[in-house]
Amino acid sequence: xxxxxxxxxxxxxxxxxxxxxxxxxxxxxxxxxxxxxxxxxxxxxxxxxxxxxxxxxxxxxxxxxxxxxxxxxxxxxxxxxxxxxxxxxxxxxxxxxxxxx
Length: 101
Known about the structure:
By secondary structure, the protein is of the alpha+beta class. The chain contains 4 helices and 4 strands; from the N terminus they run E-H-E-E-H-H-H-E.
């Protein structure tokens, strides 16, 4: 299994707005080969820190996804978000290979 965390820090007062966007996400990734699960995590001590956690069967499945046209379409839409502060947020991406369960 392969796990990817994309961590963003946004102004706390905008966290509900961003959470709402993820609650209504397109779910295109759900159809990708090897996709297992998606979770949006909110840091309980820093409400403006949000982490997207995705689980994949393999690293190759994940890399195939990020090279796909669907991935590119989704992320192009993010860049066009009307709130420029949110549109310009850069995620810190952490990738993990599961080595024990």
